[in-house]
Design brief:
Layout: H1 4-18, H2 27-32, E1 42-50, E2 55-64, E3 68-71, E4 83-85, E5 88-90, H3 94-104, E6 109-117, H4 120-133, H5 141-150, H6 164-171, E7 178-183
Antiparallel strand pairs: 1-2, 1-6, 2-3, 3-5, 4-5, 6-7
Helix pairs in contact: 4-5
């Protein structure tokens, strides 16, 4: 029989997991941070991997559509140089993309970036779907990211999953995906005020 402490612990864990960050910058701030990349339209799956077993622990999507944004569902990444509406970060310049990777890469963890050039309409659909997804509850990053992808016909084979590594594995099977890895050796996240 469960005691009151166990019930309280389970209830608290449920509440923490269910909480989502609903905060957003004002529309005018978001518009000030629009970054239009000169690169071809693309979608990049970003997976934070634990070196102990090469287990994917977090998923983000860098979407280069009419503007370049980062969809970071349930992520902790923040920067004063970006605007944010729930889980979508606006102003993802090349510097900010590298900063995001550096923020996550550290002793024991590395970042896998899988970039795929896509037709402009596919990138735009991914952008729309990410914005529409809204805020994501903690521990649901892969569910939200996979849902954004598999709602697009060319990615319909990617299952809705709780496992970032599964998205990474499936995305790797697409012809034309270019994979890069970011490794760093610091012992903690790169908290900086930029």
């Amino acid at each position: 029989m469960l005691n009151i402490r166990t019930i309280f612990s389970v209830f608290t864990l449920f509440l923490v997991a269910a909480c989502a960050d609903l905060s957003s910058d004002p529309v005018e701030v978001i518009q000030e941070h629009v970054y239009v990349s000169p690169e071809p339209p693309s979608i990049t799956v970003l997976t934070m991997v634990n070196e102990d077993g090469d287990f994917g622990e977090h998923t983000g999507l860098l979407i280069n559509a009419s503007q370049q944004v980062l969809y970071d569902p349930a992520g902790t990444f923040r920067s004063v140089n970006l605007a944010r509406a729930r889980d979508v970060h606006y102003g993802m310049t090349p510097y900010m993309v590298e900063y995001y990777k550096s923020y996550h890469a550290r002793f024991g963890y590395y970042v896998v970036a899988q970039k795929l050039e896509v037709p402009a309409e596919v990138a735009e659909e991914a952008f729309r779907r990410a914005v529409a997804q809204g805020a994501t509850a903690k521990l649901h990053c892969a569910v939200s990211a996979s849902s954004v992808l598999n709602g697009i016909p060319m990615f319909s084979f990617i299952p809705t999953t709780y496992f970032p590594g599964k998205i990474m594995e499936e995305f790797a099977t697409i012809p034309g995906v270019v994979t890069t890895i970011t490794r760093e050796n610091d012992r903690g996240k790169n908290y900086r005020n930029d």
